[in-house]
Amino acid sequence: MPTDALLARPRPNARDGPTRWFGYRRRHTYQPAERTVGWLFSGPAVVLLTLFIVVPFLLALGLSFTNQRLISPLPVRLVGMENYRRIFADPVFQRSLVNNAVFTVVVVPVQTAFALFLAVLVNQKIRFISFFRTAYFAPVVMIMAVAATIWKLLYDPDIGIIDGVLRAVSGGQLSPGWLRSSALALSAVIFMSIWQGAGFQMVVLLAGLQDIDQELYEAAEIDGASRWQKFRYITVPGLRNQLVFVATVTTILSFRLFDQVYVMTRGGPLDATQTMMTRLVDVGFNQQAIARGSAIAVVFFLIVCLVTLVQRLLLREREAD
Amino acid sequence: MATLQAHNPAPDALRQRDAASGNADPAADDGWSTPHSGRGFFWRSLRRYALLALLAVFFAFPLLFMVIGAFKPDDRVLADGASWKAFVPFGASLDNFADAFSRAEFGRLFLNSVLITTCIVLGGLVVNSLAGYALARMRFRGRKFLLGMVVTLAIIPFQAIAIPLLFMMARIEWLDTYRVQIIPFLANPFFIYLFYSFFLGIPRELEEAARVDGAGPVTIFTRVIVPIARPVYATVAILSFLFSWGELLWPVLVTRGSTVRPLSQGIAVFQTQPPIQWGDIMAFATMTTLPILILFLVFQRAFVQGVSRTGLKG
Which residue segment(s) compose the domain that A238 sits in? Predict the structure, then answer.
């Protein structure tokens, strides 16, 4: 069969399923089989992911059933679920679970709503708007370690500007001391995290806003829709993908909460800001209880998997409506 | 006509059209709904800019505090911290910057950070985009499994695998090197997923056309796909830059001394022995932040466009 005729015929599966490389040769140029190319292309990533994420994670899983410590006179042996029993009985870990839950439940909706508000605000075509966009985004480009160090100083009850202003306004009455107060420390961490993260979400949502068809707004205009109605029935549905993306990513990052806490409070005062990750680093590195630290890693993974799965299901249900 | 245009989202275009057709009618200005003139316009703009400025203050005051503090002696940073004086550079000098270089070896750490970050960003772009393309376009055994693996691995935080990874790295004697800070971070499941979802959105016809012309998969990827995919490359480059520039935990674990340490470790130097040298910390922090801020200003458009066209999906 002449090659040209073969090529000219529209292939039945040209549009559905992944592209087929196999079987299309032209003038004897060698075209490797698609499955080979697929593995060649994804090979480097697969090897790296396996070596540096999968293997260490499986090691952590294995270690979590042993009594491994960094330096220990005892021989390493299997201890079954002992580490899991211990971490769930550990009041500090319980506290960290609650803190992670509070942080996520507050930060995900508040930060997303705030970022949506910002995105709508900076989507106006007015003078100096790019200046404001950059200002709102600026915290995102700060290294978390740096931002947290600065905020530690801002929050300081004696030398910080925040309590300084509160004292000046209240005549010296009010000086909550944020990071040093076990009642307020978590709120302070939450506030700082929203300050740092909102700008990134704003950019994602702004990009989505700019993709919404302007004619929809014009049509709504003619139908006499109010600003709220336009926002509710055009903007929000139009941003659905971006909102889902932002909420999912923020949820995962919320559970990972570590850097700002580690720099600002190390989990204190009185474990008021302990999170699963600070507890993991504390147990695994500082106390060198590697096996128990690994058990925390496994529990963390299972919890986040579960939360992500539930989120997926909820969103899919919505979509089906 | 004027009232119809009142809340139009693209007033500039309409105004131009009106001006061109001689349709701009000042008498129809009700002072409230016409966006570009009148007393109502003035007050509305004022309100709008006041809100924008208030938010700008909220986001930028810690940065401002940091930059101004960088020029002050330590005792002034402490003395001025709790009042408006924090935002006025009393006793300004460059001493803190000099300290950052001499005591925290800012120069060395900065170069280390640049080297590590550049390698991770460039290497990561190649590795992750190739994988994302294979997952989006090619049919091979294990594709579904790989995709599932990528999505699942994106959940695991680095801290969770840091302990066993540290053991592994110690075993192969990689501690205190650049490669231990680079190679584990090249492949990133989250970035693979971003590339994957972008490539899914590219029309197949372009590749088909190139294939008919006899192009092999590598040529198609480098000549057809990469040029279209610039926005997603820009987005991933910026994200991966931010992630690796700020990495905090890993360098503490795998490095000793300043030879191969990155910037995020430098600040700790000023906090180890009391009294804490806040001025030096501010100078160090300023020099760490400003390069990124400038970089972002330069690439801002590419970034926003990139995010817009990455087609971020849930």
Answer: 85-320
